Each structure stands twice: as C-alpha cells, then as structure tokens.
Amino acid sequence: MQIAELLKEAKHKSKAAEKCLFDIYAGRMMTLCRRYVKSPEDAEEMMLNGFVKFFAALQHFRYENDAAVYNWVKRIMINECLMFLRKQQAFKIVSESEAENVSLDEDLLDRLSAREIFEQVVQLPVGYRTVFNLFVIEGMTHAEIAKELGITAGTSKSQLNKARTLLQKNIDKVNYHEKQQQQ
Amino acid sequence: MKNNNSNNAPGWKRRLEDFEEDPSIDLHASWEKLQGKKPVKKQQHRYAFYWLTAASVVLIAVLIINPNSSKTTGNTGHAVTKGDTVKAFIENRTLIINSQQPLAVQATPLLKNKIATIPQAPVVLKNNTALEEIPLLITEAPSVQNISLPDSVSSPVIAVKTPPKKLKLVHINEITSGKDTNGLVQQEAKPYFPITYPTKQVYTNAGDDNKTGKDNLIRIKLN
Question: Average pLDDT in the A152-169 region?
C-alpha cells in the first residue's frame, strides 16, 4: 500500500494504516533520535512522542510526495529531541572564539562503515553532536542553528569545528587500530 | 573566514541519513506504548462519562416526578391508594364481585323496609299539641351483607357492618299530603293484582309517581 493511501486511511483514524506508517518510519526515526539523544531509552521516548504528534497533526497535512512526508516526520522528531535537550540544559555553552576551521577528510568515509561513522557521531559530546547533526546532516545554517539552540552563530561555528576535530581524531585512532590488527 | 557551508561534507550526510540502525528495541512493544500515549481515548471516556451522568440525572428526575408509578395493584387490577376509605374499597369490591359472578352469588342488596320509631322527643307545636309518634317508613340503604361465595369463586369473603343511619325527625305532612295515609300501608304490601271482572282492570304497584297526581296503579282495559 502506498504512503498516500496510508495517510488517507490514517486521517480516518484507521489503526491498521497508522500501524503501517509506524512500521515504515519507526526504524529510521529511532536511528535519528539516537544521533541526538544517544541513550536508546530516551531515543525511544522521543520517537513515540513524535509519532503521537504526527498522528494528531495528520488531519491538517496535505500530501505532496513521499519525500515531503519523510521530511515532515523527521522535522517533528528533531524538534522533540531538541526540546528534550533544552530541558536538560545541554546548550549552556559559553561563547568561544571561533576555532580554526577543521575540514573532514572524506576519504575516511570510504574506510569506515556507516555503523562505525554512526557510532563515532553518537560518542561526541552533546553540544558538538547536536551542532554537527544540524549543520552536516540537516543542512541548516549557523544562524538557524543559533536561533534553534539559543546560542550565537559564532558558538555554533566553534562547536562544529570542535566536533570535526574530535571526529577526525577518533576515526584516525580507529584506522590505526585496524591497521595494527591487520599487521 | 572560509565559508563553512562549503564544507558540508555531503558524503557524511549521505552515509548517515540513509543508515538505519538495527533496532535495539522491540518495535511491536513500542507500538503498544504508543497506543497508551494517545490522548483521544481519554476524551472518549470523558464523553461517555458525561452521557452517563446526564442519563442518570434524567432517570432520577423522572422517578421523583412520578412517584405513583411504583404503587402496587390488587389482583383485581384496581389501584388501591392510601386515600381510599375502607367503605369505598368494599363497595368497589362488591361491584367487581357482582360483575364477575352475577349468577353465582346474589349479592344484590336487600332492601330492608323497616318501621323505625323516632327516638327523639316529640315535636311540640304552637298550640302545645304534641304530634303523635307516627311510624316512619324508612328505606334503609342497601347494606353489605355477609356474602358467602361458592367455592368456585376465589374472592375472599367480606363481612362489614354498616354504621346505623341517623333518623331525621320529620313531620308527617312533609312526607305525604295527609290524604292517603292508607297508601303507606298499601306500599308495604306485596304486589297486588286484583282482577275485577266487570271492569277488567289490572292493578299493580309500580313505584311512586306523584307527579301526575294519579295513584301508582296501572290500569289496563281489556275488551
């Protein structure tokens, strides 16, 4: 059954359609929430809260295409995660001077699997991880990130550079250990 | 300052966005948790509670307004209320019994034609002549007698004494015109059918009819 038909049925409070939509999006949304909140239990809580809001707001949603539905669901989940992190006061970041811009070596991506990259991102500190996710994955600007998190644009840039530095370091370590194991 | 937007690392986005972690949690259990989080059911329960409350209030109001609906009825179907007197109840039962078994039980009241004397002191006229006590014919109202019903009738036996009637002190002139005192005697006689051959008239007594001024005889001429 296509997503458009499922959405139409779900608007009429069809439990079966809601279950189908849940099965389609739950896995990826769970992974997304884990990238933001790290803990599996907290990530599940955020995912369920997001789905409650998704089904409640379904009446007012107008279907355009499958990508639009995915982006809308993703936006709901990210907002839930950011609200959770704000409550934990995870963004009390002191304004810093901008660090040296660090670039990420994309060659590293070829050496690592998606799971390893994911695990490296999840291990970052909450501030670094949040800014990295919003900037690199979601494609937001520093101004938008600053408005979202209640920080300055400069702080957002600083957090991003630090995230990249730390990622680079951690991936180099992983590669070093793999090379040693191969030898 | 380099534009950091140029270093968006599209490779990172591509690798991480499409990655779906093997779920460390049971999605079926998550679905069950999701059903518990939904707020719609609470509203439905709330609406059901409001409807039940309104229905119970209406029911209580109906019961309070119509208390007569809970009264019991007798086996004859007649609703007995507290206001009914015993006498009225007995009269009703008598009528019902009469209607049910008109042949089995002759519950017709017996007319007791008594000659009662006025117990009070004689009336004294102006010329101080006392009226002689005249026997006064009083037709008592039918009283309920002990009706013994046959066994086939399942109604219970009712025996009630009627209270004695108060006799009213009246002058004889108020009762009759004073002319025909013998009529009083005749009235108590049994049906009287003298047949006189010459006149060929039939007499009978058919009740009081003083309106026309004639006596209460029906004369039938036979030729």
Answer: 90
Torsion of CA A35, A37, A41, A44, to 10 degrees: -60
B9 inside 8 A of chain A by CB: yes
Instruction: Tell which residue, A126, A122, A113, A27, has the closest CA to residue B15.
Output: A113
Which phi and psi angles does B155 have, rounded to 5°? Answer: -75, 150
Whether residue B17 lies within 8 A of chain A, CB to CB, comes out as yes
Give pLDDT, residue A171.
Answer: 81
Whether A19 shows a pLDDT value over 90: the answer reads yes
DSSP-assigned beta bridge partners for residue B116: B136
Q: A-contacting residues of B 31-50, CB under 8 Å?
A: 31, 33-34, 37-40
Q: A142 with A157: CB under 8 angstroms?
A: yes
Q: Distance between alpha carbon A169 and the CA centroid of its chain, in Å?
A: 21
CB-based contacts of A90, cutoff 8 Å, min separation 6: A126, A127, A130
Give the model's confidence band at A156: pLDDT under 50 very low, under 70 low, under 90 confident, else very high. Answer: very high
Closest CA to B7 of A132, A127, A130: A132
Please indicate whether, in this complex, the C-beta atoms of A40 and B1 are within 8 angstroms of each other.
Answer: no
Whole-angstrom Cα distance, residue B169 to residue B118? 7
Structural tokens at position B31 = 């679905």
Residues of B in contact with A136 (CB under 8 A): 8-9, 12-13, 16
- Residue pLDDT, tens place only, B80-129: 555 555 555 566 566 555 555 554 444 455 555 555 554 555 555 545 55
| pTM listed for this prediction | 0.53
**Which of B200, B208, B199, B205 shows the shortest CA–CA distance to B217?**
B205
> Which of A31, A52, A135 is nearest residue B19 as measured by Cβ atoms?
A31
Q: Name the residue facing B8 among A19, A114, A136 (closest C-beta).
A: A136
> In the block, which residue shows the tokens 């995915």?
A70
Which candidate, A113, A167, A159, A114, places its Cα nearest to that of A140?
A: A159
